[in-house]
Amino acid sequence: MGEALPPHEAVGLIEDHVGEPFTTRLLSNRRGSRAWKISGPRGAVALKANNPDEETSRDKAAEMAQEDDHLLRLTDAGALDPSYRVDAGPWEGGRWLAVRWSDGAPMWRAFALARKPEGDRPSVRPWLLGIARTWVGHLARMHAAGWAHADVQPTNTLITATGRAEVIDYALACGPAGVPRLPYRGALTHTTAPEIAGAVLATAPDAHVQAEPPADVWGLGASLFWCWTGHRPVAYQDGTPREDKLRMIAKAATLPLDDVRPWPFPRFEEAIRACLTPSPGNRPSAAELAAFLRET
Length: 296
Description:
The protein is of the alpha+beta class and 296 residues long. The chain has 2 domains: 8-100, Phosphorylase Kinase, domain 1; 105-294, Transferase(Phosphotransferase) domain 1 (Transferase(Phosphotransferase), domain 1), CATH 1.10.510. It has 10 helices and 8 strands. Strands 1-2-3-5-4 form a 5-stranded antiparallel sheet, sandwiched between helices. The protein has a 3-stranded antiparallel sheet with strand order 6-7-8. β1 and β2 form a beta hairpin. The longest helix has 21 residues, at 124-144. The chain is globular, with a radius of gyration of 19 Å. The protein starts with 7 loop residues before the first helix and ends with a helix.
């Protein structure tokens, strides 16, 4: 079989944005959706579309339409740069969405040096703090507008060459009351906050669980913990059923950071521990955490 081609309906609309001639590269094809990078002389976009040939437990076409609605609402609220969303629409197989291309390395790969003992060097410390600061800054703007990202995890964060965090994928975001949406049942298990884990376990599979800003703060701390130490913050085996993982997460018993850190970094560790405070009401807000990370 040949490489999956992007929907021609999408390409026809975004070619003016990137210019001609343009190139198309398939980035991923899994879990019911596909993603491409489309590059031209005027720039590049990331194009996503559902895969109508793959059945999954989630309706990716509906999820893609939901993400587009979220991007429009977040832009109107001043929580998202208007240049991020490029275009969106239907195609014969479902829905597609194009967003500005974000140059950056996946977080896990970017943190490779920091996970090693030799990562303890003067240049790495401000780099780590800068990533955390810019990441939490994105979240603070969303939270101020009454939204939670609800899927804070390493895969949805790219690290630029200048050491900034770029947040992507707003499909599962939870907005103010009254905003129509698909039921939210948590996102990546490993960065799920205890209160979300408990709510998912206590409700019916089709019930909506509203994610609030403190859950994003936990997800941030869990992601930093995981990518810096190489260990997920809550210990369980990969083959453990998701419900059992959620039960363990709901207890909010994380690995001792002192036991798994690659090297001591008190300021960074303090920020991570604050994010992973068991009670959501006792965690710092994203704005408070941003202020702490700005202090010299």
